Amino acid sequence: MTELPIFDDDDVNRLLCIVAHPDDMEYGASAAVAKWTDQGKSVSYLLLTRGEAGIREMSPEKVVPLREGEQRQACTIVGVEDLEILDFPDGLLEPSLELRHAIAKKIRQFKPDAVMVTNWELKMPWGLNHVDHRAAGIATIDAIRDADNPWVFTDLKDDGLEAWKADKLLVNGADPTHAVVLDDEHVDRAVRSLEAHAVYLEALPDHPLPSDMIPGIASEAGTRAGVKYALPVQVFDM
Ligand SMILES: [Zn+2]
Known about the structure:
Number of strands: 9
Order of helices and strands: EHEHEHEEEHHEEHHHE
Strand order of the largest sheet: 3-2-1-4-7-9-8
Distance between the termini: 27 Å
Radius of gyration: 17 Å
Bound molecules: zinc ion
Shape: globular
Largest sheet: 7 strands, mixed
Mean pLDDT: 96
Number of helices: 8
Helix content: 40-55%
CATH topology: Rossmann fold
CATH class: Alpha Beta
CATH superfamily: LmbE-like
Strand content: 15-25%
Low-confidence stretches: none
CATH architecture: 3-Layer(aba) Sandwich
Number of domains: 1
Structural class: alpha/beta
């Protein structure tokens, strides 16, 4: 095991979290969000799809309001008020110009210091990654650059949205370079934020218990960082 340096989040005050689905932030990342909102940092979630294809036995019409409600509850538990859910198709997400435009627009509106995203690699420690997670990650990397280039998506400038540079990219669920130190309360709220996706989790009988899974992730990274609990993150300077 390598030693993980502590991520210095003192200078990061505005964080934009971009994920494909309702629930994607709740696999560990929301513990760091609970810490950051406690510290008075501004955290915004941008979901690219409404997760309508996420429950096999339930129609999209029923799933959409249900999962939005569960996500809002999860957000409340970790102190996030700014939740925006876009309408790209669940299961069919592509790293298209349309998606990059939508993400770049949000970056120029929210003006984050750091963007957080889920891992876009095909091979993950647990198996093969979902297409939407791959597309969300790749589109986000490109959109961070798009948002910073005044000559890309110039229509945004016409809407008064000037170029904006997000300095850092934090990747959740990737081979970590750093650790965000957490305390027990942050981990506890992350557990509850995942539990908020109650109907979604009910439809996945083999899913591990949030109360086992989240402390497991946080204590493994914590051990590598020399603390009790931490969120493992891969950090890039943009
Ligand atoms: Zn997902």
